[in-house]
Amino acid sequence: MYVLVAGAGKVGWNLARELIAKGHEVTLVEHNRRRYLIVEQELEHAVQYGDATELWILERAGIQRADMVIAVTGDDEDNMLICQVAKEKYLVDRIIARVNNPRNLQHFKLLDILPAVSATDLILRLIEHEVPKYGLVHLLDLEEEQLEIIEMEVADDAPAAGRKVIDIDLPDGSLIISVLREGGGMVPKGDTVIEAGDEVLLVLDPGVEADITAQFSPNGQVQ
Amino acid sequence: MFVLIVGAGRVGSTIAKRALNDGHEVSVLDEDPLSHERLDVDLDGSWEDAGGQFTVGTALEMEALLEAGIERADVFIASTDGDNTNLVISQIAQKRFAVDRVVARVLDPARASWYAEQGLNTVCPTKTAIELLTAAVFGPDQEAAA
């Protein structure tokens, strides 16, 4: 696969190195001269000097034949525009954009620059995962596929506690795919009894979250 | 008309004052509070006294855009000193807020042309400068050849 990476900061440099190690062909583009010279000592011809928001720089880097363009500069506008021209002008199949300020994610979505990855958001997710009081943890959101996987701890007096899976009042478009109990995991069947303290993983359509929360939280309250 | 101008540099502030003078309602958004001073130049009182509006913030912040009145803007001019900023915010004005007339200043001729093809109204001062300089040196007949 030929991958064009814009921005040779920590993210871009490490990404380029890993991709090359996996056998991919990579061109990294960096517009800061000093940074370029440092990175060039290691990556040699795999890094080019220039502003990746300029069309001729992208063309010199071979964007026409790129299978994937990854924009990971420290500037959100740059990442948006690099991916926008990659997708709409050069018809690159796959793009990935880095979001520096999570509040800009809405702009990436508006311009249809997806997937857009935000490190801040990822860390927030991990905090969510580590802090049980949040109750519901998002493990995976596939927005385009309209699918998400969540994890919930079953509260002591939750409606679902002590009931068989088949008897739990779950909304359409949701399914319990796994139950974690005492350090082990299992795939439940209809007659598996859910206990308080279990962690359940569900796959669901976005939008039915509140109905699901109600089954596993104390007294069925919606969080 | 309600005119919203983002970027109060030499270009933005001059257009702002001209529009206000022509009787339009004008709101200016700039991240630098000091850029306000440029709006006051040549006015009897301050920019606000003359009827203008000024908001400190960047056009990527929704709060700043809303405070500057983008929802009722008839005209949106992106005239910051960054091409990339202008291209992004003018698309936000067009796609999210459906502003009637959106104009972006883009110094890079290649991208000014491409985004114009995509339906964005871009103005490229570099292209204009090249044409004028070529005409000044080689005569107006050479303009097309440039």
Overview of this protein structure:
The complex is a heterodimer of chains A (about 220) and B (about 150). With about 220 residues, chain A is of the alpha/beta class. Chain A folds into 2 domains: about 1-125, 3-Layer(aba) Sandwich (Rossmann fold), CATH 3.40.50.720; about 135-220, 2-Layer Sandwich (Alpha-Beta Plaits). Chain A is built from 7 helices and 13 strands. Chain A has a 6-stranded parallel beta sheet with strand order 3-2-1-4-5-6, with helices on both faces. In chain A, helix 2 (about 35-45) links the parallel strand 2 (about 25-30) and strand 3. The longest helix of chain A has 13 residues, at about 75-90. Chain A starts with a strand and ends in a 7-residue tail after the last helix. Chain B is of the alpha/beta class and about 150 residues long. Chain B is built from 6 helices and 6 strands, in the order E-H-E-H-E-H-E-H-E-H-E-H. Chain B has helices at about 10-20, 35-40, 60-65, 85-95, 110-115, 125-140, and strands at about 1-5, 25-30, 55, 75-80, 100-105, 120-125. A 6-stranded parallel beta sheet of chain B has the order 3-2-1-4-5-6, with helices on both faces. In chain B, helix 2 links the parallel strand 2 and strand 3 (about 55). Chain B is globular and about 45 Å long. Chain B starts with a strand and ends in an 8-residue tail after the last helix. Chains A and B meet through helix 4 and helix 5 of A and helix 4 and helix 5 of B.
